Each structure stands twice: as C-alpha cells, then as structure tokens.
Amino acid sequence: MTTPISSSRRQHSLVSVRLITDDVARLVDFYERVSGMPVRWSTPDFAELETPAGRLAIGSTCTVALFGHDAARAADNHSAIIEFLVDDVDAEYERIRQTTTEVVITPTTMPWGNRSLVLRDPDGNLVNFFTPVTPEARAKFGR
Asked: I need a surface site. Which of 19, 24, 68, 93 has the fewest CB within 10 A?
C-alpha cells in the first residue's frame, strides 16, 4: 500500500533519464535525427537532449564507475520505453523512416488512445513517438 504525499512534503521532479552506451556519438546522432532537436555535449562522454518536459541524457560506459562498479550496462535495456509526444505521429513516421530501419511498430492506434510509432535506437532501446487521438488521451496531454 502506498502512502499519499503530504502537502507539506517536498514534491520531486523527474529531470532526466540517462542511457549508458559504448558509443555516445552514435546515440547522439540517432536522437538528433529522429527528434529533430540538437543534443548538447558537456564532455566527450556525456550529452543531453533537452525537451520541454525534461532531458534524455546519454553517458558513456566509462561514467558508470562514478555510480559504483557495474551499476549499469550498455545496450541491456529490456524494460523501459523512451517516449516522445509529437503533434502528428504519421508525419513523423514519414520523416523518420528515411533515417532508420529499426521500426518495431508502424503508426498504430493503441487501446489507451495514443497513436504510436515504435522504433529501436542503435543500442536496442525502444523509442515511442506518439500522438493522443481519443478525447480522453488528448485531455490527458492537454491537446
């Protein structure tokens, strides 16, 4: 059972999700191409894609030791999906399919009201571009 957050407790904000990779430049290139947004490099081992909702950080495997030996492994994700809210997923598909062949699902309307395009990045992570299409889904995302 979860305990509700008291109004006197501090609220937390999700700031970023970090991907660990053996090839930062390759992932940066992929996310710049599919998102159409520039990635900001901090060091040769760390870069970030900044969106209005937060950041997608991309870190080299050499940074893992800073968190503890073997704390994360590159290209070993089997449980998370990185999701981007877009205005028109069908238009994004036409643009993105010119730059990637790793399409998992072409634009499909999901039971929860989002139209989704799912691909894999070069490390095998699932990436979902979606547009809310039902009234309930549009309301959830303020569309």
From this structure: 68
pLDDT of 5 strictly over 60: no
3-state secondary structure of 31: helix
Q: Domain 77-143 in CATH: superfamily?
A: 2,3-Dihydroxybiphenyl 1,2-Dioxygenase, domain 1 (3.10.180.10)
Question: Taking Cα atoms as reference points, which of 15, 24, 16, 40 lies closest to residue 123?
Answer: 24
Other CB atoms within 10 Å distance of the CB of residue 30: 23
Cα-based angle 135, 140, 141 (whole degrees, multiple of 5):
100
Residue tagged 């992929």 (tokens): 30
pLDDT digits (tens, 9 = 90+) for 42-87: 999 999 999 999 999 999 999 988 888 778 888 888 889 999 999 9
Which residues partner with 115 through β-bridges? 109, 131
CATH topology for 14-72 is 3.30.720
pLDDT at 6: 53
Joined tokens for residue 77 = 């994700």
